[in-house]
Amino acid sequence: MPAAERVVPRSVTMWLLLQSLLLLACLRSAAAFPKGCYPSEEEGLKTFRCSNAHLTEVPGDIPNDTHKLYLDSNRIPFLPRDAFRDLPLLRELDLSHNAITSVESGAFRGLAEHLRSLDLSSNRLVSVSKDAFSNLKAKVNLSNNPWLCDCRLQELIRTVDLAAGSSGGIVCDSSAQEEHVGKAFLQVIADTDFCNVYKKTTDIAMLVTMFGWFAMVISYLVYYVRQNQEDARRHLEYLKSLPSKQRRSEESSTISTVV
Prior knowledge:
Elements: H1 3-32, E1 38-42, E2 45-49, E3 68-70, E4 78-79, E5 92-94, E6 102-103, E7 117-119, E8 139-141, E9 147-149, H2 151-159, E10 161-162, E11 172-175, H3 185-188, H4 194-240, H5 244-258
Parallel strand pairs: 2-3, 3-5, 4-6, 5-7, 7-8, 8-10, 9-11
Antiparallel strand pairs: 1-2
Helix pairs in contact: 2-4
């Protein structure tokens, strides 16, 4: 067989072997991802999709060079501290349509540098500390959650940069004042300062507490003075009942002690 004819089959064999190895690597990589999750590329950005994958927590095997992460339409109940710490290049994070009720402080730590979009709409958030979003520059969507309208929510809204068109979806599901229920929060705080009301309530409570302590101190002083007066009266009566010499000696001793 000519040399040229021997080279061609070898080249084909090497090519097929290389393709098989690449396919095996891809299959192993895919097997490492949670069921229903897969990587892709959109507009030159590395994307990882886990939409409607029946997840109950943030998966831990997300490629650390991911730019866009979709975890929407799952059953994730809360976001723990450092949930996304291994994703330093993340730009977009979609957590909408989950069952999130709480976001721990530090849940988005490590994302402040690149994150530009954060979607937490259509979850079960009632109250979240502003510290959970500290240092984030992302546009945040907080609409369609059962919010409790209070000072905590007011501080949170002042801290985050709301996504365009999402503010109207932040509605009071509950509030200390019944007339606020069902209204958009930004509409409510235009007339009501929840934090100022809270401060006034706290000040009144402090005044009542201070008055209570003051009344207790005054009561004790009055009791102390009356008790001493009673003791002094009894002592004088005792001195009067003594013989004259002993009485004068006791009186002198009492006067010396007083002086």
